[in-house]
Design brief:
Blueprint: H1 9-19, H2 22-27, H3 40-68, E1 71-72, E2 78-79, H4 84-93, H5 112-125, H6 127-134, H7 136-146, H8 149-161, E3 165-169, E4 185-188, E5 194-204, E6 214-221, E7 232-238, E8 249-254, E9 265-278, H9 284-320, H10 339-371, H11 375-411, H12 422-430, H13 439-452, H14 457-475, H15 479-502, H16 509-512, H17 514-539, H18 545-562, H19 565-574
Helix pairs in contact: 1-10, 3-5, 5-6, 5-9, 5-10, 7-8, 7-9, 9-10, 9-11, 9-12, 10-11, 10-17, 10-18, 11-12, 11-13, 11-17, 13-17, 14-15, 14-17, 15-17, 15-19, 17-18, 17-19
Length: about 575
């Protein structure tokens, strides 16, 4: 059985138009008048074209690219797998890189929500290839917001069009998550440029053959910079200078990785390379976080996409695989009927569809935070996107790996061999839990910066919205659904209130239970997504009766069978007497 992918366009449309009612929200964005014409037919037409490109162009390159990998040549050039360059040229010619970028810079100005759905399909079909254009939008946002007019004029249009790609150079051998330890130096020159010297590792897409120029955004230190993160600046360092000369940077090696073999992950040396300051000196991290926040949402979409393709193929396998004697009519011995397999498939489908609601809600929040005419709405939606981002990055990528693992279980021994494809999804999915800030860092960020920093105001605002959803479910005749959501909101609220009250006396608790807070809130968000989806399916005027019933069953399964898992995490959050003993070194 071929490893295949059918884009879930019906579910994407249902989430965007019926669950989130995105067209109504887009029409409120006066700064984007073109969004008013984004009706269901237009959106589906765009998604259909993206699905066609993903399945027909990218998916056939996925397994061969994994086996071939990238090549570093003796002269320092880096080649991507066969077919990657042609696929990227087709991607650019079709205008896909410019989808969410501003028309002022040559973009199509379409919503981030629509871009997220397109990106989900690209990732599902070829995650290694998608890594190359993945950082384009974050680089665009960073340069547009912080670079000088000269740099914007030189680089922005070519990045928007996809003519040039970008890379994000953060990590150094001695400075992983703690960027305050980085050593790359930037020496000012008389012409206003910077001379960049240092080494970076784990740089995705730093050198390749897809475009003629690659724009590196490099974290570095000016000579008078203080120690720590406050001394970090951001520089734009192209591989090809404006005069056409090659810049003084080189690929020392390619990383030999567990997965995403078709993505060129480089160790880079900057040997007095020419660059230019982006933003203010010493404010590099603030500028870079525009790129990081975009990247973290995209990594969360990787987790979602890995789950979708793995679940689809596991479902096909479960219906094709016949095993055991049937006590009923012929043809019912497919393993899909076995309770253990049914649990796996229903669990994966319920998790997947709830996560799509959450991811698309965050993308819609980014649209509204940028373009809604009401400043209070913009501020509220920006806070909502910031609150949801670490959950999406951490929980979705964890489920991406777990989903691929459970899909492999459905395949049995066949899943463990290369030919059927699910083992590649498992390998490709694992890195997403690590890069763009490990999942453990996401948990700390969620609790300390997104909950404690504003006294829980953003979280309380969301819980109030979720409580309103419970009331709407009750009015729609879904009393049991409303009760489950209300109970989860009460449990989460009580646990977090206990934690907030305890922290002044035991501040170390914030680190000890950060992961439980993230996991607990992930299930709380999913409870809201399940309830909202069930109500919308029940009230839908576009779903067929069979499709509406199927959606209610899947989301009902999530509330009944998956939601109780949150209690484990909230119990630990509330247990103030739990201690974490010191870890003794190995002898």
């Amino acid at each position: 059985m071929a490893y295949d992918y059918l884009a879930p366009i019906d579910d994407m449309r249902f989430v965007m138009h019926e669950v989130l009612q995105a067209p109504k929200a887009w029409q409120q964005c006066e700064g984007r008048p073109e969004w008013a014409d984004l009706d269901a037919d237009t959106v589906v037409a765009i998604l259909d074209e993206a699905a066609k490109f993903s399945r027909e162009v990218l998916l056939p390159l996925n397994a061969p690219g994994d086996q071939q990998g990238c090549t570093r040549h003796a002269d320092g050039r880096v080649s991507t797998p066969t077919g990657y360059r042609e696929a990227y040229q087709a991607f650019v010619q079709a205008g896909w890189p410019a989808l969410p970028c501003a028309p002022d810079w040559g973009g199509q100005g379409l919503p981030m929500l629509l871009d997220a759905a397109v990106r989900e399909m690209l990732i599902a079909c070829n995650p290694a290839w998608e890594m190359y254009p993945d950082l384009l939008h974050g680089a665009y946002e960073t340069i547009k917001a912080h670079a000088s007019d000269t740099l914007k004029q030189e680089y922005l249009r070519k990045i928007v069009s996809g003519q040039w790609l970008a890379a994000m150079a953060l990590t150094e051998p001695q400075a992983g998550s703690d960027l305050g330890l980085l050593r790359t130096q930037a020496v000012p020159q008389v012409d206003g440029s910077l001379q960049i010297s240092g080494s970076k590792i784990f740089i995705s897409g730093a050198l390749h053959d897809l475009t003629d120029n690659i724009v590196h955004l490099v974290l570095c230190r000016l000579p008078d910079a203080p120690a720590g993160s406050k001394g970090i600046s951001l520089a734009l360092v192209p591989t090809v200078l404006p005069d056409g000369q090659a810049n003084a940077l080189s690929c020392d090696s390619l990383e030999h990785k567990m997965g995403i073999h078709g993505s060129a992950t480089c160790a880079i040396s900057y040997d007095k390379a020419t660059g230019w300051l982006i933003g203010e000196a010493g404010k590099g991290l603030a500028a870079m976080f525009l790129m990081m926040n975009s990247a973290r949402l995209h990594v969360g979409l990787q987790g979602l996409a890995h789950q979708e393709i793995a679940t689809q193929n596991a479902e096909r396998q479960a219906w094709d695989r016949q095993q055991g004697r049937s006590a009923a009519q012929a043809g019912t011995s497919a393993i899909a009927h076995h309770p253990a397999i049914r649990h796996i498939l229903l669990r994966r489908r319920a998790l997947l569809e709830a996560q799509r609601v959450i991811a698309y809600r965050a993308a819609l929040a980014l649209d509204l935070s940028a373009h809604h005419p009401d400043a209070q709405v913009r501020q509220r939606e920006q806070a909502m996107a910031a609150f949801m981002t670490p959950i999406i990055k951490a929980f979705f990528t964890q489920q991406g790996f777990q989903g691929a693992s459970e899909a492999m279980q459905v395949f049995g021994g066949y899943g463990y061999v290369r030919e059927l494809g699910v083992e590649q999804t498992l390998r490709d999915a694992r890195i997403a839990m690590i890069y763009e800030g490990t999942n453990e860092i996401q948990a700390i960020d969620l609790l300390q910066r997104k909950i404690l920093a504003d006294g829980g105001a953003t979280l309380k605002a969301w819980m109030s919205q979720a409580q309103q959803e419970a009331q709407q479910c009750r009015q729609a005749g879904l009393a049991e659904v409303a009760s489950r959501l209300e109970a989860e909101l009460q449990q989460a609220s009580a646990a977090l209130e206990d934690l907030l009250a305890r922290l002044p006396q035991r501040p170390e608790n914030s680190l000890h239970v950060a992961d439980d807070v993230l996991q607990g809130l992930s299930y709380t968000l999913m409870a809201w997504a399940h309830a909202l989806s069930m109500r919308c399916a029940r009230q839908s005027t576009t779903l067929t009766p069979a499709a509406a019933q199927a959606k209610q069953e899947v989301h009902g399964y999530g509330l009944q069978w998956l939601l109780p898992q949150s209690g484990v995490h909230w119990q630990r959050v509330r247990a103030g007497d739990l201690t974490v003993p010191p870890l003794q070194p190995l002898h």
